[in-house]
Amino acid sequence: xxxxxxxxxxxxxxxxxxxxxxxxxxxxxxxxxxxxxxxxxxxxxxxxxxxxxxxxxxxxxxxxxxxxxxxxxxxxxxxxxxxxxxxxxxxxxxxxxxxxxxxxxxxxxxxxxxxxxxxxxxxxxxxxxxxxxxxxxxxxxxxxxxxxxxxxxxxxxxxxxxxxxxxxxxxxxxxxxxxxxxxxxxxxxxxxxxxxxxxxxxxxxxxxxxxxxxxxxxxxxxxxxxxxxxxxxxxxxxxxxxxxxxxxxxxxxxxxxx
Amino acid sequence: xxxxxxxxxxxxxxxxxxxxxxxxxxxxxxxxxxxxxxxxxxxxxxxxxxxxxxxxxxxxxxxxxxxxxxxxxxxxxxxxxxxxxxxxxxxxxxxxxxxxxxxxxxxxxxxxxxxxxxxxxxxxxxxxxxxxxxxxxxxxxxxxxxxxxxxxxxxxxxxxxxxxxxxxxxxxxxxxxxxxxxxxxxxxxxxxxxxxxxxxxxxxxxxxxxxxxxxxxxxxxxxxxxxxxxxxxxxxxxxxxxxxxxxxxxxxxxxxxxxxxxxxxxxxxxxxxxxxxxxxxxxxxxxxxxxxxxxxxxxxxxxxxxxxxxxxxxxxxxxxxxxxxxxxxxxxxxxxxxxxxxxxxxxxxxxxxxxxxxxxxxxxxxxxxxxxxxxxxxxxxxxxxxxxxxxxxxxxxxxxxxxxxxxxxxxxxxxxxxxxxxxxxxxxxxxxxxxxxxxxxxxxxxxxxxxxxxxxxxxxxx
Lengths: 258, 462
Fold this sequence. Notes:
The complex is a heterodimer of chains A (258) and B (462). With 258 residues, chain A is of the alpha+beta class.
């Protein structure tokens, strides 16, 4: 088995069709807010500089360290908060950490259309899950994936259960928790604690929501003690690095690799 | 504030520099790090028009309250207060204010003081036009053993700091420090020392920059507290002191923060600027003492190497390049030469054969240069270090803004920081009033974020 990887080229996924509108029940909030937003003493943004050579590809060109050959520092304790699982049960987010497992956490929303955002994270999570189940099946019980929605209005437990499909509550293989929150009141303190910015995209002419949300995706690697040991941004999220980081934490805990 | 004694002459300086370079050790100044094109790749950028310029300003005894302060200048075109100071936040302390850096979410800005070793964390998102001091780290030296928190560079969820000196002898050996975004110390790492891949690693530090596609961190080297706090007039007359300047750069594994290779780059290599052009994998620096421009890139066998690609020349015997600023497309480089107060523009279309194509005098002295991401606006400040700035009439302390049309600089405004009773104008950082306009660095997302946005977190407060 090889832990090394070089010249990785990750192509941006083809953009899926755009999702529906932003939470309908929030529209009454959004409308006055969009006006407030427009009245901010800000200028219209100049056209962004575009690189004519931009290919839409993110290129990693380096050797990846074998697991266990480096140390991941403890960055901070992973924050908790009140969440709902796909059965609608109230849980503490921290219940999804620890328990003898290393956890990979990301924020998503099920109608996300940004190919560099949620779908990319979803793809990375799938790559890690399938690779570990294939290469290190003895460790699948020590690893957990958590996808937490920041769209509580649309991503109800029922919707999230459909979204998760067979990934949620799989009888075997890696545990993958799909979580949401009851409302923004429960969600926002969690987003703040993880410093995960999320924005509604608004039509610049009308100020109305366009039905999409944007965020600079972050993924958090959490150890068995509930400490964040690595943070990845979507900009430089290399699945092979994440995979080896997970194995590195498992090795700390005495796991044996195949 | 402007004593005439200990004034150094060009001749003395030239002799000192020649001597130290001949000895194979570096000499002299510079300090800076600015501009939208040199932020951490993990920090979202202002790719359009910046709204605000923050100036980290050194307090001067007898000027205003004498304290280091964060000065906010409105640079929104059409604003009634365009080109004016709209906020001043005094730290109530004078500790050699120097550089600043954003957190990875650009909500907070960390600012360091090289003498007091204090680190100030400002909230710049709640009301970007009126920053608020939310935390001061006062035990940096005590906890890390390092002195002079210089460069502040965002990692995801963390702040990477390059120090300049150490608590044991206040010399140039130093290291890297990692804090989390809450200001809690995570880790310290010594700069490489001893013989390293056949090169003597001096253990000095100055600036740093990360290329995430290559997983490398590049560092440069300057001098310790003993020198950077010494009066420049005395320093250049002290041959022993002049031996203690950095002469190396190092490339590190950015993931593990372990050094991979040390380069011999004599003459105090200072600011590090990675080209942001997609596909480029090179960085440039200027060595203060030799005036040489160095490019660090991989050779045909993918081995990292440092190349001497050109020499900055001025009419004065010592060019003393200080801050540099590389355009976002990697094709043009601003280089300030402190002593003559001139900025030079270098054509970097071929980074291995750059050419100086334009120059303009900015002031009696000039240190920092910051350009907007589109390169159309260029800002300058004048202070290098409290004890290294010129004396008397030569000690102009200005923030100046110019438009750049690709051919010449046209002055737009100038603020006299002494007249405004502020102090010495040093490091600049830009900010947007509407943080929703910020965009990630990588080009593939360009254009995806130009719509108006509403922060999810705004909803609850309404």
